[in-house]
Amino acid sequence: MKNICLLVVFVTFASWSQSSEVDSIPSSPWKRTGKFSFIFNQSSFTNWTAGGESNLAGTTLVNYEINYGKGRWHWDTKLLAAYGLIKVKDDAFEKKTDDRIEIYSIVGKKGPKNWYVSAFLNFKTQFTRGYKYSKNNQGISVRTEFTDFLSPAVLSSGPGFQWKKSDNFSFNLAPATSRVTFVKNRFTADRENYFGVTQGETSRYELGFTGSGYLKFNAAENVTVEQILHLFSNYLDNFQNVDVDYSLNVGLKINKYLDTSIMGQLIYDDNAFAGLQVREIFGLGVNFAF
Question: How far is CA 180 from each of CA 129, 188, 288, rounded to the nearest angstrom?
């Protein structure tokens, strides 16, 4: 009985000591959140008189954020990586539905109210080769390489001012942004203009104005909406032509591991294409949060 009483006293003291030690540890200024998603789409047709082509598609997405906040300083970094393919039954080639790597990082020192003096860095490229598709004189499908990893790659940075309500609502203005577009020389050897890079060159420098915004909120229970906007105008060439990159991600949570995802993106960049680029993906997603 004496030994049992001593054991109870020891366990109680050890638990109290551990609890006190945990409570005394200061909270970390770092916060890390992320999500890995796999979105799957599939259609199958057999003797379907109304017509249709069987296809199989999948997209992998990694969305990771690192936020630091201590005193008057904050530092937010966001990584987006996505890759998707679709294979149509009678098509000779599988085609990409998504391919991007993007890192956006911004550091700020607090000023009056919700304003910060800031500096940002943004990097964009893709994982693999991209192609343009056509048919030759015999009607056979052919493809021509048009992009590749680090071709193009865009690096932007500059000082500015940020208004930040929370980690989920902010915008940044950078009136002196340096932007450099890198490409591989094999793409400019026989092209006069390749993503704004002139023939024979491997890079293009731009100085301009950047505006960026981020908004994330719950539209309803288990429905999350995320919006990302980037604007850029080049002081050195056609200032009136504003590059626009807008992304919309909507997640409808089914349970801990499944949700329905809607992803859309609008891009206007006259150096890449003289028109509006539109991409949309809808499908059932498998998610792992970390």
Answer: 21, 16, 35
